[in-house]
Each structure stands twice: as structure tokens, then as C-alpha cells.
Target: Glycosyltransferase family 4 protein
Amino acid sequence: MIDLKVVHLNTYDGNGGAGRACLRLSDALKASGIDSKVLVYYKFGQNPKIDTFSKSPLQKARAVYNILSERYYAKWLSKSVKTPFSLQWFGRSVINHPDVKNADIIHLHWVNHGFLNPKFLAQLDELEKPIVWTFHDSNAFTGGCHVRYGCENFHQQCGNCPILKISGKNDISHKTWLRKQKAYTELNFHIVAPSKWMAASVKFSSLLGTRKATVIPNTIETKIFKPYVKSEAKKILKINPDKFVLMSGFMPSKNDKHKGTPYLIEALEILSRRSGIQKENIELVIFGNKENAEMPEFPFKTTFLGTINKDEHLAKCYSAADAFITPSLEDNLPNTVMESLSCATPVVAFTTGGIPDMVKHMQNGYLAEYQNAEDLANGIEWLYHRPNKEEIQKAARLSILTDFSEEVIAAEHIHLYETLIDLQPK
Model:
């Protein structure tokens, strides 16, 4: 293996799925002997493994200005929908940073919110280095949205955007598409899609449909997210060890579109009315809920764990559950699904996005028909009545060790990096 210096660029340090995936990959690469660094636009935490472009008070102030401006203007120009949209009007150059200049590979992750707009992305071409870009959502190949739902405008040149207040053929989404097209003609980069669904989405896009994309999943810390004895984990959460525990993540409100909360509520209502289901034997546990959030009523006893900041404790929470339910309607490769499976807890989810890359139907979980609350309830009931729960739990853990472990994912990235370096003009 050749010596490699890899620098990962992300807007934030570990808050959000992309930030966590970026740091996990860097740690996995370092464990495999690679010189890997993470550089972020704005650093919230104190993790010494992460460096930032915004160190001085002036740099921090400018970053905050860019981030807030980007978010404010996007919100002002968008309808009141819960679909994130980026204008990418603000940005900053990174090509003179010593870690970027000295790297053999520049690996981009989530670079929105005033960080790398199309102009500064194109500027990376001046460094004449291989560039890898992991798509943690759809923004790189749309005119602004991060989550597409049913919109297919990105198949053409965007425009007539359903998110914008002022929409038309030459609206902001189309103009953003044109800016991206110009930048991409100047910049050669290799796409990494964490899921088959994301790779297929890229192929449909007018911006990047002809580009090469390699499917390499995100990884996870398998020594942290590991199984604990379920009865003991339940005791830690002060839950009766005999209870059948359902777990789900934070849901902002009944109206939240992206996370599919209404389907979860409906599925639980359906489940509670079925014969053979003992309501008093089931407990719902929700983590990550924010204070003062509008929480819906559930038909089962519900425990709210709040925000969990320590991964070791989060692993025990997953281990306490007999099933993790995610009613998400569009997700690339959600961390919560991977974390749950790694802790030997089966997952019940809709057949959408990258979830089928992780959940194998009736092997380590249950894939319900998309937007079908009845089938979501079927999945929970299937696990509830399973006589061989331990076999499914073992299959969940094994699926992560086999396909998503640090060693496996690091090796796939290293192979890609070496291939790209070999293709560089000598």
C-alpha cells in the first residue's frame, strides 16, 4: 500500500449525519495506516481530531455570517415546507490551506451553508489532485434541494421548482443548476454514493448522469455500537426486562414530512388494535426529542430519553430495544439504521432510499411497502411474535460486521484512492 495523505472537507464537525459519517471514515482510514485529516468550515465541538478553516475571531465571524446568510435567504425565498434548500451564494476559498495543498486526495463531504459554492468548488481544479466527493444527500445534482421526494426536475435543468415562492422556467433553481454545470465542466471529481439508491439517482441527473460513481457505504464504530444483553440494557433505562421495547428517533411533529411521523403513529394505532397484541406488554422509547417540541400521542406507554450525547450510552439504548422503527420517506444511508443493526436490534422501515442496502427483509429486519402504515405494523407484529428473536438479532449484527465494518469500508476507499492516483497524469 502506498503512503497516502487524505484531507476530508465538511461544513460542520460531527453534528448531522454527514459530519458523523465523515469523521467515522477518517478514523477508519487512520486505523488502516492512512494519514487522514478532517477539516471543517465551522467547528462547534472540542474534538482534537478535527481542524477548522475558521480559527481566528474574524474567520469565525465571517463563517457565521456566511452560514446565517445562506440559511436566512434560502428560508425567505422558499415556501414554508420542510424540504431543505441551498442557494449557494456564499462561500470561501480553501486552496491555499497547507493541509489541502499537501494532500494526495481531497475528499469532499457535505459542503453547503456558505462553505464551497460552485465557484470555489471549481477552484479546486487548480491543485491538480484527485478529488472524491461523497454525496450524503441530493444537493450536488439538483438546483438547490437536498431531498427530492417525487420531484424529477433534476432530470432536466431544474426550474419550475416546487419549493420556491417565485417559481418558473428561469427561477433560482435553474440559475443554480447553470452555475453548477459551469463549475463541474471545470472540475474533475469521482463520486462516491453511500447507497445504490443514491448512485441510481445520480445517473438520472442531467448534471452528473455521465459521471462515474462508486457505491461505498458509510461505516460505523463496531466496537462502540455493539450488542449488550437486552435484559440488562432495559434495566439501565428503568424498563421492565419482560417488556417488548420499540424504539424510534426524534420526530418534530405530526406534520414533519421527511421523517414520516404520521405513518409511525398510524402503524402503532393499527398494531394496538390487533388481537394477540398485549398493549401493556409494549413500551415505546424515543430518543433525541427536543424540549418544547410538539410530541404526538402514542397508543403505548412512551418513554422520552431526550438527546443522548454519549455513543456508549446510545448503544445501550439500541440494545434495550427489540425493534427499531424508522418511518423515514427518503434517506440515503441513515446512521440510526446502521447503529441499531450494529447493536443487534432489528429494524422495521419503509422500502426507500438506501435502507434496503442495510435491512434484509425478514432476515435482520422488515422492509414495509412504501408509505403503507398497515405494513409497517405488520413488520412490528412479525418481530413481536417471532419465536427465534435471537437469530434475527445475530443476523443484524453480522450484517454490519460483514458489509459496513471499519476495515471493510476503509479498504474500499483506499482501493479507490490508489486507482485515482494511478490515473493521474505523470
The first strand starts at residue 5 and ends at 12. The CA atoms of residues 11 and 111 lie 5 Å apart. Residues 5-219+405-423 form a domain with the Rossmann fold fold (CATH 3.40.50).
